[in-house]
Specification:
With 273 residues, this protein is mostly helical. The chain folds into 3 domains: 1-90 and 162-167, P-loop containing nucleotide triphosphate hydrolases (Rossmann fold), CATH 3.40.50.300; 98-156, Histone, subunit A, CATH 1.10.20; 174-253, Crystal structure of tRNA isopentenylpyrophosphate transferase (bh2366) domain (Helix Hairpins, Orthogonal Bundle). The chain contains 12 helices and 5 strands. The strands form 2 sheets. The protein has a 3-stranded parallel β-sheet with strand order 2-1-3, with no helix packed on it. Strands 4-5 form a two-stranded parallel ribbon. Helix 5 packs across helix 7 and helix 8 crosses helix 11 (229-252). It is globular and about 55 Å long. The two termini are 15 Å apart.
C-alpha cells in the first residue's frame, strides 16, 4: 500500500515501539523498512512507555509532517485502542488518584477478575455491557476513574476532537483454520529466530506493563521454574490464537472495517472511500 501510494507507514502496534522487543513482535524487517519509511518502530526503550494518549499526540504530529508531502498515509497494526486514538481521538478522563489505585489493587488481591467484573457492573452497568469483561486492565482502569471522579466511567465517553483527515478502515479476513495455522507457524519461526533468548534478556524487567504481552509473559513462569519450556511454548500459541480471536471481534464491530483480500481491493476501497 505504501509503495503504491508512494507514502510512509505508521506502526499502530503498541509493542513494536520498543527497541528491546524484536523477535516476539515480528518487527518489520530491514528490507521492509527500506522499501517504505516506517514510524514508531523500535524508536524508544521499554523504560519509556508510550500510552495510547501519547501515541495520539505523537502520531498526529507525524501525520501533519507526512501530509505536507503525501496525499495518503498508511497506519498498520493490531492494537485497536491505539488505532482508534489516532484516527478518532480519545475521550478525556480525570486524573486517577493514588487512593483509587490502592482501592482497585485491594479489590484485585481480594477477589480477582470476578470482583472487578461485579464492581464495574454495579458502578457503571452501561460500560460493563460493552467492555472486554475478560481484560482485567480495562476493568481496573474503568474502576479507577469511577473511584477518582465519583461518577460512571461511561459519562466521560464521546467527547473527542474532530480530525482534519479522512480514514478508510481495512482488514484482512483469512479463514479461521488458516489464521490459526499461520499463528502456530509464526511462533515456531520466532523460536527459531531467538525468542527464548530475547525473553531471558528481558526477564529482569518482566514486571513492566509492556512486558505483560503475549509472546513474552508466557516465559516468566518457565524462567521462574514454575512450568516446562514445552508448556510455555504451548501457552504462547494458545494465547496468540485467543488474542487473534479478540482482534477479529474488535475489527468486526459496527461494519467500520472493510474486508479486503488483495492489494487491488485495498486500493479500490481507499479511492472509493
Amino acid at each position: 500500500m505504501a509503495r503504491h501510494f508512494g507514502t510512509e507507514i505508521i506502526s499502530g502496534d503498541s509493542r513494536q515501539f520498543y527497541r528491546e522487543m524484536e523477535v516476539g513482535n515480528a518487527r518489520p524487517t530491514a528490507e521492509e523498512r527500506a522499501a517504505a519509511k516506517h514510524h514508531f518502530v523500535a524508536d524508544r526503550s521499554i523504560h519509556e512507555p508510550l500510552t495510547a494518549g501519547g501515541f495520539e499526540r505523537e502520531g498526529l504530529a507525524c501525520l501533519q509532517t507526512i501530509f505536507k508531502q503525501h496525499d495518503h498515509a498508511v497506519l498498520a497494526g493490531g492494537s485497536g485502542l491505539y488505532l482508534r486514538a489516532l484516527c478518532e481521538g480519545l475521550d478525556v478522563f480525570p486524573d486517577v488518584t493514588d487512593a483509587a489505585r490502592t482501592q482497585v489493587q485491594e479489590l484485585v488481591e481480594a477477589q480477582g477478575l470476578s470482583g472487578l467484573q461485579a464492581e464495574l457492573e454495579r458502578l457503571d452497568p452501561a460500560h460493563f455491557a460493552v467492555v472486554d469483561q475478560q481484560n482485567p486492565r480495562r476493568l481496573e482502569r474503568a474502576l479507577q476513574v469511577c473511584y477518582s471522579s465519583g461518577v460512571a466511567y461511561s459519562s466521560f465517553l464521546g467527547k473527542r476532537a474532530p480530525r482534519a483527515f479522512r480514514c478508510v478502515y481495512l482488514r484482512t479476513h483469512p479463514e479461521r483454520p488458516l489464521l490459526y495455522d499461520r499463528i502456530n507457524r509464526r511462533v515456531d519461526l520466532m523460536l527459531e529466530h531467538g525468542l527464548e533468548a530475547e525473553a531471558r534478556a528481558l526477564f529482569p524487567d518482566c514486571n513492566l506493563p509492556v512486558l505483560q504481552t503475549v509472546g513474552y509473559q508466557e516465559w516468566w513462569p518457565f524462567l521462574n521454574g514454575n512450568c516446562t519450556r514445552d508448556r510455555a511454548v504451548e501457552r504462547i500459541k494458545q494465547n496468540s490464537r485467543r488474542y487473534a480471536k479478540r482482534q477479529v471481534t474488535w475489527f468486526g464491530r459496527g461494519g467500520i472495517y472493510q474486508a479486503v483480500d488483495s492489494l487491488e481491493a485495498a486500493v479500490a476501497a481507499v479511492l472509493a472511500g
